[in-house]
Amino acid sequence: MILANRTKLLAACAASALLGGCATMAEDRPAMNNSPAATVAIPQGTGYFAQPSDLPLQAPDFTKISDGDFLPAFEQAMMIHKAEIEAIKNNPEAPTFANTIVALETSGRMLGRVSTVFYALTGANTNDTLDAIDAEIGPRLSAHYDSFSLDPVLFDRVKAVYDNRAAMSMTPEDATLLEETYQDFVHAGAMLTEAQKEEVKAINTRLSETTTEFSQKVRDATNENALVVDTREELAGLSDDEIDAAAKLAAERGMEGKFAIALQNTTQQPSLPSLENRDVRERLFKLSYNRAVMGDDNDTRTLLAEIATLRARKAALFGEPDWASYVMYDRMAENPRTALGFMEQMVPALAATQRREAALLNQQIEAGGEDFEVKPWDWYRYAEQVRKARYDLDENAVKPYFELTSVLEDGVFYAANKLYGLTFEKRTDLPVYHPTVTTYTVRDADGSELGIFYFDPFQRPSKRGGAWMSNFVDQSHLYGTKPVIYNVLNIPQAAEGQPQLVSFDNVNTIFHEFGHALHGFFADQRYASLSGTATARDFVEYPSQVNELWATYPEVLRNYAKHYQTGETIPAELIEKIEAAAKFNQGYDFGEVVEAALLDMKWHSLSPEEAARITTPAQVDAYERSSLEDLGLEIDLVPPRYRSSYFNHIFSNPAGYSAGYYSYLWTEMLDRDSRKWFLENGGLTRANGDHYRETVLSRGGTMDYFEMFENFAGRQPDVQPMLEARGLVPGGEGEAEDISDGELPAGATGIDPVE
Ligand SMILES: [Zn+2]
Description:
With 755 residues, the protein is mostly helical.
């Protein structure tokens, strides 16, 4: 994932993400002081955050920042930002691009500085004080930004500039800034009549109630449908510790002497592969799958139907045909038809793979002397057996080849040097927020300074889970700033005196996060809000995924994956085994995700009239089923990762990730197609790197993403390489063992072509 801190900040900023300060974190003096016509006095800030940092490239000076500084700095920075906005509104001159759009872009710089450092710390090195400030400041920031996005006087100025755009001479980047600023206001409701605003308000209130109720019901349904059994024997297959934990859970719930297994949020449950008793497996699966459709108090079906209807009605007030079209205005895919068409293309190969995998599992079941057809509650038990037999990979055999510093410096940095000519110089002069954080100067091919890189690898209690990248300072030609970027990971730290080895997953993550960093370092934008990784949600994960290609590229591997004791390079068989294992069981693993993404898009591409016709539980069930079955997917064989009735990502808050679950699939398509381009064009070369940098990595959010991709690949993105990489169709580089090899029973469906 990326930009956790900024995402958090942006979440706080709601629809007004681009209204200055929020995504604008580069440093300079407050721009409004330059405006001769400003009639509103801008207060001067005080304290550390009032001015840009004195350190190289304005890197944050952690020696001068203490926890107690944040709240007063936030308050002061919001007050200054408000004064800057007032100055824009009260400017006696006619609205222009410079005095309105650029002025908005450059407002809130102090707020940007405070937020950047604050959210970096709450993510990577928090404490109770910072957490308390976070809880207090979040709603206040949200209200602060909302007050601008809903300000009619401010919008009138933005609209005046926008309406005059055909007569203006602008760079493409200026035009993008204008378009995005205007669209953000429009999507926040600036164009609505008073009556429509009232209606939106009423819908928002009801959406807030219904989505909260949805998440509470899902929570209760999940808790109340724990599996309960009477005897230890029924849980055979689980470890003694797991069975003891089940006894404890039952006792806690007032069922002393029984055994309980709590449900997880997904359809599949982690205990299912281990449970030997098939009836118990079936019970556990059905409790999970039917948790919120039991006709009791926790049934969410009428509620989710209402949410879908409310969203469709809200979209209609904005002149959009459906909710997905309303929320996707700033995405690469832009509308639900594109996203649906993309997913529907995968269905034939996916459905065929699912049937093939089911046939394989049925053989495994039969080989074990059992007599039944595989069902979802059996799937992972038998898939795990096949996986163990074919791809068993001892993590401890792999780890000695992956020493952390070598992975970073001889792997990640080496690939960046070969592709882009970058060089890296470790430095010791910059203050860091934790002693295990290291810093590097990043130099461009010509030796000039490109930026500063902070690497924060280790897990600790003060850090939240996952891995992310963000900027301390954004690149901006307007401000004359260069990128200062950090990567945060959660790698378990080795004991004192032990070599710092990492898993293959972590190796991938290190390459992935550095892919985001490259996107930031190569930024070449005038405006910070369009700079580097400030791109669409269904685009931002693309460059980072592409960078993972180099983790297993032979020339790169030879340079970094060396045994920490013997210096021997990792054997090719180990890498092949890892890559082959990645193609196993994709009909299910990938299929359940595609199905969830399809459900998300199907619910959110309904018109208000269509949505209004789905109200009863039976109608919800029928729509869910037909959404997938009409495409040829067998919901009873491979059910979606989340059923509509407990799909918290899309129904548990007013907008959330609704009409957005497809994003990871989409960026994976771009990624796999791009990897194919690299491999077909000679792989790890400066020419390839420079071309990718020129066409994609240096473009930030300044142009149409399809055009960007076409400039890079010479064609539109294609779903085929992703299907190949997932093993759903034959082909692709380093083709893995096809799971149907010699295993395909007579009469089973073979591999369908995708198109
Ligand atoms: Zn990412």
